[in-house]
Amino acid sequence: MRLMLAEDSTLLREGLVRLLAEEGHEVLAAVGNAELLLKAVAEDPPDVVVADVRMPPTHTDEGLRAALEIRERWPRVGVLVLSQYVEKRYATELLTGDTEGVGYLLKDRVVQVDEFLDALERVAAGRAAFDPEVVRQLLGRTTHTDLLARLTVRERDVLAEMAQGHTNAAIARRLHISQSAVEKHANAIFDKLELTGGEGYSRRVLAVLRYLGS
After folding, report:
1. Cβ contacts of 112 within 8 Å, gap of 6 or more
2. HTH luxR-type domain: which residues (predicted)?
């Protein structure tokens, strides 16, 4: 796939460039700030952008702002955001929009190469990829909700996997259950959360957003 990187740490940026090149991907640009990233994307939109949340000049949310702008201006470009820590506000902001082709990973996950590459491929394929730790912390603040209290432990497990962006087939493998069981749990989740799936809305996405308290 065709990629662009935005990371102010030269060491990490160059490491990612080398890793992705070794995996057969084409890195079109590797820059150190959000302004240069937006300029590069405007000139030649890639398949996926990988961007750090915090970049110069203020090291607050420049990378996230750039990611959201890219999603708005170039909706076909996937965005995988990296963060040193779980930043709930930023993760929730990404989730409250269209989650197709969006990912949020902790930087520690990058060194687990297989997981990083899997997340990258999911984003490139138009699916979501959210770090399990991010999902766990976001879920921790929603347990008081009455509708969520209706879910069984297994249904919560399935919904947590959904929130990470896994397909039903992947969830079945990860939870060691059949795909038909996953589908059964998913339908139960939709019913218990009172999601009717109105026209133009994905019950799957709505369930994740409800679960994250968005």
Report:
1. none
2. 144-214
Torsion of CA 213, 130, 31, 66, to 10 degrees: -20
Rounded to whole angstroms, the Cα distance separating 77 from 159 reads 26
State how beta strands 102-106 and 129-130 pair. parallel
CB proximity list for 120: less than 8 A, separation 6 or greater: 1, 3, 48, 50, 80, 103, 129
Looking up tokens 């879920």 gives 139
| Widest distance between CA atoms in the chain | 50
Residue range 28-45, pLDDT digits in tens: 999 999 999 999 999 999
Site of tokens 């990404």: 94
